[in-house]
């Protein structure tokens, strides 16, 4: 008779099955009930078996779904390199839209492809049903809603709920300081139009999300790409050099928390320094704080606006990454530019419709939003870690990887300066859609990087996709 | 015994009551049942009495509400003067926002005032409950709607329904030719940004709605104000003179059907000439066709786009005047500028939320929209005529008036070049809010005009307000 307890013997059996590939990463482990029936063991032994394998890192428990096989842990990849705080390239007009939209169009032409390109969560991550219920309650209570003009600057209830949320990120805002917009994209448009004219120079993080570059291009603004750390965000030293070289910088645009695509979080000390620096130089500071609620920690990350003492910081954010991709709810707290932003918003698109605002206000004040965010943070952390482990396990040597402390994406430096657009094309052929680094800077400095979205629950399909992507990267890198 | 039939005797009695003011315009006539009880007459006599008074223009029947006292008919006022097709003033940057927003703010600070300023119908004119029901059906059928990203350029169902509607206005558009926007205001922003750069010259109607002037101001465009007829719209002769004088006109913006504030409808022959002229001159033609469905006639008015043979006409429109003030649903059919407008829309605000689009698509395909429009047209016609009669009855000599064949407003020329802003201030003091002509042109050419909204059902309160407004105009004109 075997000396080891029964659960250990069973665990060894399943460890071997995993090692042999009979159970692959992402597969569901037989249920406790199935183990009891198959091996004639007690409930307690079956449970102990699973817990033991979990403690060894071979299985993971998913709430209400049972145990699943985890990818093998291997040595982690080296992090993406830190930039030098050098003088940036000359300010230049952005000419990225054609490139970006061609890439987006090629991706959209393959709706069958596994989408690792979008910086957003899968629909299952969002409380759509609760919001639907809230919207139906609003409609039942206000049957005349669609017949009445929409409130100027947004509904009072939603703006009050946002002001409450802002407090958690250490911003002291009244409801009247907030203007509701069509997503963060409209907020950024308004902020830039408020402080800059066509031809003006705006400093941005490099790399940054292509949405911002497209906005700059469409507004006829010139961009100064400032080196940005995957750990601590925009380089304050490089920004200082840039401001000495360019007397006419009108604004700095940053994503202070969980920067896209790097996932960097600016330390609070950097935020304070940046706010003071911008004020002293009379340069408007525009923040896109869309991702702040998606960090690993339940303690909210302070906004740049929290360090604003003079109204010089324009705070922009939205809810379609954190709460509802199907709503286009963003907002702007324009500080001292409020009259001008109000005018621009009115002349550009008039106030937003009320229904989504009212439904979300109800969801926020009921506490549903906080509960949802706690779940979402845990789920995203899990998804980032699983994908990070898979990339580390499968990608060839020379790959560098950042698994950031929050948000939707991994930022990957390809080995041997491999062209990300070649990887994009080859992956799309293989039914996998990624975001090539070429989309994230006008300069071409990140052409050999990839952004991979971790927005979907981990699965065998994802594991296999990362494996195929890795094989493809290896083939292209050595060909 | 009186020789006249009983119903005539009763009619005389009530005619005297009306003449003496015991029954004032807008008052409800005692019901048929009340007449029977009060005077001991038969149903047929009571009915004959009311019909006789109606045939004499003293009463009006309102469906399901009974008979009401009409304002006295007097000689109609002379129409507002036709402009000379002269060379316009030099192109100029617009500086109207401050003036307009100060006037709007003064008005909004008096929420108790009777609002004759807004170019929109009262909530009771719109089928809010039916749209609420449609929205709730959409939410029940698509409970995950808020969790899914919104469709690019708008939902297919709504765009298809709009393409169907466009057919009625003689435009041949596919669903793909249409991009859904945040109201007509965003559509106009996109159209202007697509065809003009800051500093460029754009020809506009004069007078025109201040929303357009604010857009031009905010985009840094210069305006050429083209004389516009209250009957036939923009002067094609003046436009031709302007194009000879200015080689660099980038666009002409017109409201071809029920122009705001004039109520003019361009004859089809003018529309055809203008479309051909703009194409031959390579000047983009932008139309705001928001009011087309609100004419007296149930036959739809053709859009300018119906006369477009080369994609040179950009069609902009919306539903918040015709269907739902509480939705911000507009659209643009950008013709040959479609790729550029798609890019600008994406970079400016991303696609619209889906819910309103889906609800309206259902309402449109069910036939509810057409039924609603027939009712709305009849109601607005009634309201315009009642207010027109009251203005004609009460305003002092020298007033000129247009009661247009559709839409929301009356355009009134004040006697003796009286300042409309003085009238605005005095009226607001007296709890009546109007739109002074000073808001409708950069040039100041319409400072002695008023726009009065006929968006609300006629009532005794409205009759009294017009009477007070008239007294106030008379006092100011002679002081």
UniProtKB/TrEMBL annotation, chains A, B:
PROSITE patterns xrefs: HTH_GNTR (PS50949)
Keywords, ordered alphabetically: DNA-binding, Pyridoxal phosphate, Transcription, Transcription regulation
GO molecular function: DNA binding; DNA-binding transcription factor activity; pyridoxal phosphate binding
Keyword Transcription: yes
Limits of the HTH gntR-type domain: 4-72
Pfam families, alphabetized: Aminotran_1_2, GntR
InterPro entries xref list: Aminotransferase_I/II_large, HTH_trans_reg/aminotransferase, PyrdxlP-dep_Trfase, PyrdxlP-dep_Trfase_major, PyrdxlP-dep_Trfase_small, Tscrpt_reg_HTH_GntR, WH-like_DNA-bd_sf, WH_DNA-bd_sf
Ranges in coiled-coil conformation: none
Similarity comment text for this entry: In the C-terminal section; belongs to the class-I pyridoxal-phosphate-dependent aminotransferase family.
PANTHER family: HTH-TYPE TRANSCRIPTIONAL REGULATORY PROTEIN GABR (PTHR46577)
Protein name: HTH gntR-type domain-containing protein
Species the sequence originates in: Oryzomicrobium terrae
């Amino acid at each position: 008779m075997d000396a080891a307890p029964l659960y250990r013997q069973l665990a060894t059996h399943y460890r071997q099955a995993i090692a042999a590939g009979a159970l692959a990463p992402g597969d569901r482990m037989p249920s406790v009930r199935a183990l009891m029936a198959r091996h004639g063991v007690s409930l307690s032994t079956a449970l102990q078996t699973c817990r033991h394998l979990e403690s060894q890192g071979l299985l993971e428990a998913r709430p209400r779904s049972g145990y699943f096989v985890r990818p093998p842990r291997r040595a982690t990849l080296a992090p993406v390199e830190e930039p030098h705080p050098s003088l940036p390239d000359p300010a230049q007009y952005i000419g990225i839209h054609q490139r970006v939209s061609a890439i987006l169009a090629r991706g959209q032409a393959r709706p069958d492809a596994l989408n690792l390109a979008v910086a957003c969560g899968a629909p299952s991550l969002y409380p759509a049903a609760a919001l639907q219920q809230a919207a139906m309650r609003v409609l039942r209570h206000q049957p005349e809603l669609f017949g009445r003009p929409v409130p100027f600057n947004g509904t009072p209830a939603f703006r009050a709920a946002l002001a409450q949320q802002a407090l958690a990120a250490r911003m002291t805002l009244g409801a009247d300081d907030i203007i509701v917009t069509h997503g963060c994209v409209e907020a950024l448009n308004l902020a830039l139009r408020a402080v800059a004219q066509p031809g003006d120079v705006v400093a941005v993080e490099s790399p940054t999300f292509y949405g911002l570059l497209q906005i700059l291009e469409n507004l006829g603004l010139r961009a100064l790409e400032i080196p940005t750390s995957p750990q601590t965000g925009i380089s304050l030293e490089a920004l200082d050099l840039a401001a000495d070289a360019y007397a006419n910088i009108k604004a700095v645009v940053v994503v202070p928390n969980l920067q896209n695509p790097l996932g960097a979080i600016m330390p609070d000390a950097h935020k304070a320094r940046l706010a003071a620096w911008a004020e002293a130089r009379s340069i408007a500071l525009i923040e896109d704080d869309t991702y702040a609620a998606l960090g690993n920690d339940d303690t909210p990350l302070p906004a740049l606006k929290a360090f604003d003492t003079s109204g010089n910081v324009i705070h922009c954010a939205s809810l379609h990454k954190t709460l509802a991709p199907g709503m286009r709810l963003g907002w702007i707290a324009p500080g001292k530019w409020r009259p001008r932003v109000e005018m621009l918003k009115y002349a550009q698109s008039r106030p937003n419709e009320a229904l989504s605002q009212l439904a979300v206000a109800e969801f926020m004040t009921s506490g549903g939003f906080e509960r949802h965010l706690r779940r979402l943070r845990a789920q995203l952390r899990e998804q980032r870690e699983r994908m990070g482990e898979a990339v580390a396990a499968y990608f060839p040597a020379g790959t560098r990887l950042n698994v950031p402390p929050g948000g939707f994406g991994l930022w990957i430096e390809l080995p041997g300066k491999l062209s990300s657009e070649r990887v994009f094309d080859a992956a799309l052929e293989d039914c996998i859609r990624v975001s090539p680094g070429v989309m994230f800077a006008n300069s071409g400095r990140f052409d050999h990087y990839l952004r991979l979205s971790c927005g979907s629950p981990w699965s065998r399909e994802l594991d296999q996709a990362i494996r195929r992507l890795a094989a493809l990267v290896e083939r292209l890198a050595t060909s």
